[in-house]
Amino acid sequence: MAGVVVVGAGMGGLAAAARLAALGHRVTVVEQGDTHGGKLGTLRRDGYTFDTGPSLLTMPQVYRDLFAATGAPLDTVVDVVPVDPVCHYRFADGTEVDLPHAEEDVPAALAAAFGERSAAQWRRVMADAAHLWGLVGESVLQRPLGGLGDLVRRSANPRDLAAIAPWRTLRALGRARFDDPRLRVLLDRYATYSGSDPRRIPAVLSVVPYVEQHFGGWYVRGGLRVLGDALADRCRELGVRLRFNAPVTGIDATPTGVSGVRLGDGERIAADVVVSDVDAEVLYRDLLPARSARRPRRALRRAVPSLSGFVLLLALRGRTPGPRHHHRVLFPADYDAEFDAIFGRAPRPVPDPAVYVCSPDDPAVAPEGDEAWFVLVNAPRQGPVDWRAPGLADDYADRVLRVLAERGLDVRDRVRWREVRTPADWERDTGSVGGSIYGTSSNGPRAALLRPRNRGPVPGLFLVGGSAHPGGGLPLVALSAAIVAGLIGPA
């Protein structure tokens, strides 16, 4: 039985802890904050409940596999329900479209909004994405990668590597395959699922809309935080020790392996294995001895950090007229201006952003007759922009509400109260550098396909979570935990 310390109680860390405990290891999770879940946070106030992080679950089978491998099945502990439509989109010209939960219904919805030709073009791109998913879904996303050579070797033949085409961007794919600029905007949006710029992200990430449509979009009754609570409970059932308010200040390691972690109060916890669920940049910059972190530090310096997010939590009186939409996206007239503002040479709050709204039709999240809205716009990180500057957060919150009003969703006279979360808040609360939601972006083929490895540079050190392979998002961090558990093996 190995003594395992997991640093960080985000979803990747909890998933790794549960799997390793089920394999017979003695596991302790140490978390700098006062609760579990990482970016899967929650706010409860005056009868309103908000997910402050992810609001959609894709690939729920990943969590079904996790819970089945560690005890009672997922569906016995949480209520996972389909979101239909998955999202309501409004384009700058006023066109609206609902993307259905069922994959087979998507072409008809697109045909009604954009015409049969556009629907046929989308269908062909998704057929190609299905082929790409067959190439990367298991061989890349569900296995450890040791570098570019690994990726090339896993391409069964040169034709497969040509299909992945890491040199082609998602933007180039959209321009080549779609006549309608609105379809290109829709495809571009999926770059933001990894905190990236569609003009730089590889076209292989067209698998993201394919995965959403093929596996569907899902919600957990009561909010996705309920999934995090269930995973923390599973850890406790397996004997995992969860310690909160226990910041790690260093990992003891020599070239022969790790030996433990040091806490902020001077306590040392011995360990045969350390699993890091902190941002890879924080791990290699602050926690690991410099001699052990030299090569991964160099690699991270070449990567582009992911975008962050500016969030409004709105407690609204009354109901919004018209059909209920769990998710809405309202696009600007100039989507490129958003990516210029975030990834350009002079980062700044986006003047006219795309706005994402999550408003679950769930009686558990708001008083009867009212609504709880999570409103998100993409934003540059803390650092390039000082989100702590006096007045900036409130002024920008007012701007976002004005943008909503200009696009047909004026809720300003319905706001009972609001809370604002900036990239500076994400940095403080989650430890992510600058509040980057996904660690590094997928801007460029190396960043997209070769994130920091799950096996660390010294024996006994492993990485999970959104900044490590295979990437960010609820399903991928759980896959990273399965990879790490497989590398460590049974006790």
Automatic annotation (TrEMBL):
Its EC number is 1.14.99.-. The keyword Oxidoreductase applies. Pathway: Carotenoid biosynthesis. GO terms for molecular function: oxidoreductase activity. Keywords: Carotenoid biosynthesis, Oxidoreductase. It is an enzyme of class 1 (oxidoreductase). It comes from the Bacteria. One of its GO terms (biological process) is carotenoid biosynthetic process. SUPFAM superfamilies: FAD/NAD(P)-binding domain. InterPro entries: Amino_oxidase (IPR002937), Carotenoid/retinoid_OxRdtase (IPR014105), FAD/NAD-bd_sf (IPR036188). It holds the Pfam family Amino_oxidase. Residues 11-485 form the Amine oxidase domain. This is Phytoene dehydrogenase.
